[in-house]
Amino acid sequence: MFRRSRFPALTGLCCLLSGIVASPAWPQAASPEAHSYAAGYKDFLSAARTEVTFVEESIRLAERNGFRELTGGAELRPGAKLYRNNRDRALFLFVVGKQPFREGFRVAAAHIDSPHLDLKARPIKASGEFVQLQTMPHGGIKNYQWVNLPLALVGRVFKKDGEMVPISIGLRPVDPVFVIADLAPHVDVSQRSRRSREVVRGEELDALAYSRQDEASSNVADNAKAHLKKVYGIEEEDLVSAELNLVPALAPRDVGFDGELVAAYGQDDRSSAYAALLALIDSAPPRYTSLVFLADNEESGSNNNTGARSSALNDLLADLIYRQEGDGYRDVMTRRARGKTIVLSGDPNPGVNPLSVSALEKENAAKVGQGVNFKAYGRGNSPNAETTARFRNIFDDEGVPWQVMSYKVGAGGGATLGHFLSDDNMEVIDIGIPILSLHSPYEVASKSDLYSLYRAMRAFFEKLDGASE
């Protein structure tokens, strides 16, 4: 039974006008709790620049708060805190509920990859007096935003003998950085007739990596390879079996005189992932098992065995149900459990930008500082109305500010991890927070919105089933 709105007159008027209305929200000063939350968030994002480092930092934080790896002998008693690491690039964390697993789960899903530049398999290229690292983009980017920017090289190199060499260059203040050097305005005639998205072309996103001329050799590429061998023990051939990313080296910072905003790389979608992680850690023991699903490769189509298209989540659910049911387990139990599962899928969306307020449709655009937003994208991508009503109820009860987000017709939009999970018959709703400069190397979010997202995730874990009884 849903409760009447606390603003009956306003709600009634707005419902007559539009059918769906956001809860009243005003841009307000971030609370002390929001500032404290943002401080921890910035520290986390400083270290978690890639999906691999996000998994590492998440496990480190989870273990400090009582989580243990799911093993063959793990006890699945109510309240047990466990995680499964999926190939170091995706992660599942869960708290066992009082209800049997066959009765379904409460899943908060988010992705932990962000737009970046991957090194090619043979990245070393000599050009003039320099060595450049050849790259290819991961996710949708505007190429010109990645030039003249301090970049860090982060990732891992796997040698034939199985040795793994971790690489992190550019994140510490004492480290060198990598830079994609743009043409000066004095000599950029060749770029002036290009369209904005092609001012810098994809094949031109090559980063300066080496320039030393040694007495032993005038071949700068050979010198660079010798440096890799001497310092890291890496041969050029080892780069074929490496996962190396160029990511912005800029540290997260507060924005503006008032410090109400946060600028940082990777807020899409580590804002949702961090909120889900913290909410699970902080939540009370659940009725239904609470699970956080952190996936890789969303920016490239959720592919591979660490993306949301893989069977990894369903395999985990089946494994958990089998451990409880034993010889009585049947495949149909997992199928039925998926049908009873509710998913809160989190991913940001563009917010109204002062650079062009008309880029979004005013009445249905998400505004920075006004809370989380329900995504109503249409074309089969919107959640069921009854599910939206259920979440409106708990958000209103918990005082979580919310709004709505729809794009202009034909102007964009779509789903994220949620539609893969809904394909498995789970009940899914997509929410997010508005972010400025989305998919850029330095995205901007509101501290109030970030904290509201955490509160929304926590309300989902703690209040959803109580609110529906």
What do these coordinates show?
The structure is a single chain. By secondary structure, the protein is α/β, with parallel strands linked by helices. The chain contains ten helices and 20 strands. The strands form four sheets. The chain has a nine-stranded mixed β-sheet, with helices on both faces. Strands 8-7-10-5-6-9 form a six-stranded antiparallel β-sheet. A hairpin with a 5-residue loop joins strand 7 (151-158) and strand 8 (164-169). The longest helix is centred in the last third of the chain and has 22 residues, at 447-468. The chain is globular, with a radius of gyration of 24 Å. The chain starts with 7 loop residues before the first helix and ends with a helix. The model is unreliable at 1-25 (pLDDT under 50).
List the helices and strands and how they pair.
Elements: H1 8-18, H2 32-47, H3 51-64, E1 68-69, E2 81-86, E3 90-95, E4 105-111, E5 116-127, E6 130-138, E7 151-158, E8 164-169, E9 207-210, H4 220-232, E10 242-248, E11 253-255, E12 261-264, H5 267-282, E13 289-295, H6 312-325, H7 331-339, E14 342-346, E15 349-350, E16 372-375, H8 385-398, E17 402-405, H9 418-422, E18 427-432, E19 434-435, E20 443-446, H10 447-468
Parallel strand pairs: 1-2, 4-13, 4-14, 14-18, 15-19, 16-17
Antiparallel strand pairs: 2-3, 3-13, 5-6, 5-10, 6-9, 7-8, 7-10, 11-12, 12-20, 16-18
